[in-house]
Structure formats: structure tokens, C-alpha cells
Amino acid sequence: MNAKRYLSRSAAIAARGLGNEMMVMSATNSTLFTLDEVATVIWEALDGATPLEEIVAKNICTQYEITPEVALKDAEVFVEQLAEHGLLLLSEQPNAQSTSAPRGNS
Amino acid sequence: MPAVMAAAQRCSVVVDIGGLPIRLRCDDPAFIRQLNERYAGYVSSTNEANFDFKIELAPPNVESGDEDLSVTWDSGRWLMQRGDFRAEWDPSTFCGRVQQTTNPYSLDSVLRIVHTLLLARRGGFLVHASSAIRNGRAFLFSGVSGAGKTTIARLAPPDAALLTDEISYVTRQGDRYFATGTPFFGELARVGENLRAPIESVYLLAKGPENKIEPIVGADAVRGLLGNILFFARDPEFVKLVFDAAFDFVSRVQVRRLTFVPDARVWELIV
Fold first, then answer.
1. What single DSSP character describes residue A49?
2. CB distance from A70 to chain B under 8 Å?
3. Domain at B125-268, CATH from 3.40.50, 3.10.100, 3.40.1350, 1.20.120
4. Are residues A23 and B240, on separate chains, in Cβ contact within 8 Å?
5. pLDDT band at B256; cut points 50, 70, 90
6. Do B223 and A32 touch (CB under 8 A)?
7. A19: pLDDT confidence band, cut at 50, 70 and 90?
8. Strand, helix or coil at B192?
9. B251 vs B121, B143, B233, B239, CA distance in Å?
10. Per the CB < 8 Å rule, is A23 touching B223?
11. Cβ of A18 and B247 within 8 Å?
């Protein structure tokens, strides 16, 4: 059985929504990432306290026609990629100190 | 004390780019003369400066190495380092220090970095773009190396004042953005005119079979601009400032794609 995973956004980023997309820039190397609509929903829900499975179930499966298994698998790939670039912090415990990462105006 | 003034001027030069005068001091009068020539058109006649940098020259023939550029914030100072220079700048004292070879282009790099740091606090930025003023309005032509920045600059008609063919200097004043000339040049090897005008448009350059202009909006415009902005410092606060400036800029200035054939007719579209 897989452990639950909790994700929070790194403080070393700049992020801002535009339309249905989210643009995220790494402050460590200025690499720019553009998140599509679904990825943006996940990004916005990451609070360090809610497990990824719950975010997918509540925020993705209720809004998009996708099975929970496929949605979770896609979400795991997505968060792992962002974590590799240092944009997300991955933990097996809820982050009590979690704070909202910078979110700009749309 | 004219003799004292003359001595001071032999040991320093004030370079004023974008209204931010920086005094450059060095014990070697020959290097100061070199800087006077390099930054001709941007040397202030008043000798008043907001910032002060002391330059220490490495002995001739010192290997410059091939080190990557690093710009970091450490203990209240910006540290800038590359194979051919090491520099630090303390914003609280407005003073800095540069150790470099006698190559004036090393100082060019330091000045570009310092100006990106200064501009970020003022809502501006440096961007890979040539720029020119025509009919009182500034136009930027942005793209990566090889996109055509210098080509567009070279094709500019006589009534266009060229600000740079390489690095455009963008400042914010109120709710408007301005382009200012810089001494930072590319292949054209010509210092830009020291002029300033409100920015009318930014063109993202593409070469193609015909001249055409297409609007770019929203995320595509931000992406296109951010891809060409100079981010030297690996510092979260700095990156956030410039990132936000890019969004604000795109909300106020038209961004367009300019596909062009490299001949003078392209300027018929830039009016």
C-alpha cells in the first residue's frame, strides 16, 4: 500500500494565473513552466495538508470525465516532474507550517 | 580646486544609463580613458552619481578562466562572479567593488547585472531586444540570438533613432513603459543613442517568406517576453519582481509577432 503524499509549493518560485493557465517560474534557474487547466486545478489545491489522492478525488474527478485511477496516475507524474525541478516539496507527512505560495492576479 | 577636480576625473568616470548614474573609479588612468571611450554618449558631464564602484585591475596576462556566471545575494550584498570578473555590491551603501581584467567588456557584464538589479525594484527590466525610436515612440524587436535583432537594427531607416541592437532597457514610469538607449551592443558594434521614449510595441521576431504582423495576447505574450528577459540573479525576490513586471508590461504594451524578410521594406510596417 502506497503512503499518502502531501505536497506544498516551494517558496523559491514566482507563479501567476492567466486565463485557464498557470505560469510558474523557478527562482533558482528562471525556467518557466506553463500548467494547463487541469494541472492548474491541482496546483491551486496543493496546501501541504491535503493528500494528493484527496485533491484528485475532490478537484479533478468531480470536474472532469476521468477515472480516479487514471487521474491519480497522471497527477503523480505531474507532481513528480515539478518536484524534480524544485517547484514542489513532497512529503509523506502533512506540513503543519504550510503556507500558500505566491499567487498572482489573474 | 581645479587641479583636484582634474585628478578625480582622471581616476573616475560616471556612466549614466537609464538615469541611474554609476561612478566607476580605478587607479589606472589608462583604463578610465578606455571607459570614457567605451561609454561615449553615456558619460555624465556633471560627475554626480547615485552609485559608486571601485575597480581593481588584475595584472596583465592573468588567465580569465571559463567560469559560468553566478549572481547571488549573500549577507546583504550582491555577489557577481564569472571567469573574468568578481564583483560585489552593497545596495545599502550604494557602493561596490569589481576585480577584473583590463577588458572593458567584463565591466559591461557587471553593469548589465547591476542595472537588472536596480531596475527590478523600479518595475523595469533588461530584455534581449533591439530597439529604436520612430515618430516619438519606441519599438522593441525581441528574440534569441539569430532571431534578427541586429538585422532589423541594420535595416532601420534614417528617421529611426537606434537605442540598441542587443539589450533593451525598459523602465516603468506611472502606468507607462519607456525604452532607453544603452551602450550595450551586439553584432552592430555601435553604441545606442542616449534617448528615451514610451514603448508602443514589442515585436517577437521570426524570419519568414513575407512581412507580416500578428497580435500575441495572454499567456503567449507573457511567455514570449519572459523568454527574452535577462534573469541573472538566482534569487527568489528578484525573480518574483521581474516576473510580475513582465505580466504588468504585457497588460499595458502591445506584443506582436513580426515575421519578416530581411530587407528594408519591413520598416514600412513599423510606424
1. S
2. no
3. 3.40.50
4. no
5. very high
6. yes
7. confident
8. coil
9. 19, 20, 25, 19
10. yes
11. yes
Whether residue B247 and residue A19 make contact (CB cut-off 8 A), yes or no, is no
CB within 8 Å of A21: residues ≥ 6 apart: A34, A35, A36, A37, A40, B219
Contact criterion met (CB below 8 Å) for A1 and A22: no
pLDDT value for A102: 40
A26 chain-B contacts, CB cut-off 8 A: 239
Chain A residues with beta carbon closer than 8 angstroms to that of B234: 27-30
List pLDDT tens digits, range B79-117. 999 999 999 999 999 999 999 988 888 999 999 999 999
CB contacts of A16 in chain B (<8 Å) are 243-244, 247
This prediction has a pTM of 0.89
Residue extents of the structural domains in chain B: 10-121, 125-268
**Chain A contact probe: residue of B240, B242, B250 with most A CBs at under 10 A:** B240
pLDDT of residue A103: 33
B106: closest CA among B168, B179, B157, B57?
Answer: B57
Domains, chain A, ranges and CATH?
6-91 (3.90.930.60)
- Average pLDDT value over all residues in chain B: 93
